[in-house]
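To close the chapter, one final illustration. This time we ask the reader to focus less on the individual chains and more on the assembly as a whole: which components sit near each other, and how the overall shape emerges from the parts.
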Amino acid sequence: QVQLVESGGGLVKPGGSLRLSCAASGFTFSDYYMSWIRQAPGKGLEWVSYISTSGSTMSYADSVKGRFTIFRDNAKNSLYLQMNSLRAEDTAVYYCARHPTYCSSTSCHRVDAFDIWGQGTMVTVSS
Amino acid sequence: EIVMTQSPATLSVSPGERATLSCRASQSVSSNLAWYQQKPGQAPRLLIYGASTRATGIPARFSGSGSGTEFTLTISSLQSEDFAVYYCQQYNNWPPELTFGGGTKVEIK
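The assembled structure is written out below.
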C-alpha cells in the first residue's frame, strides 16, 4: 500500500544537527513533489520545506531557511531533511508528505496540498 | 505571507448535528485551499482540495465551499469518528510558502 515512514528523530542539544529520513513505498516516488511539515507539541501545522520531483527545486519556510536542507534520492525512494543549528523552537513532530497529482481525461496537474502523510518522527531540541 | 484564520477555535456539537467551520485568508487564495482532519496521535488526513473537491475515500457528509478569502467546511451529520481537529491550508501564494490555519477542534457537546 501507499506508505511513508519517517525515521531519524531524537533528542539533540541546541546548535546540534540531525538528519531525518522518509522511506516511500507503494507508488512511483520520483513522480511526486514532496514536503516536510512539522507540528510543535500541542500546536498547529507548519510547512517546512518542499522539493521537486527531480530534486532541482526546493523551497523553505523563513523559520528554517539557511539551517535546513531538503534532498531526495529517487533511486532509494527516499526523502531527507538535514537540520543544522537546531533551536528549542524546532522541537516538533516532523512529517513527510506527498503532493498529489490529479488527472482528468486530458491532463494531470499537481495540487500543492498533501494527500499521503507519514506517521511522523519526534525531534526534541533541549540541553 | 498569507495568514489563515480559522473560527471558532472550538466547536461543540452533538452527534448527528451539522458542523460549520470557517477559514479566512488575509488575501485572496482563489480556490487553492485544502482541509485536513487530525485525530490525537495521528497524522492529518486530506479531506478537501480545490476548496470543494473531496479527496479519495472521503465521505459525502464532508463538503467544502468558498473562494477568494472566505471558506467553509461543513460536516452534514456528525459521526463519532468526526470529532477531531480540522485545519485549512492555502497553496495559492506558493512559492515561497504554504500556510495552515490554527485549527478548529470539534468536540462532543
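Chain B touches chain A at residues 1, 32, 34, 36, 38, 43-46, 49-50, 55-56, 87, 89, 91, 94-103 (CB under 8 Å). The two ends of chain B are 35 Å apart (CA to CA). With these observations in hand, you are ready for the problems at the end of the chapter.
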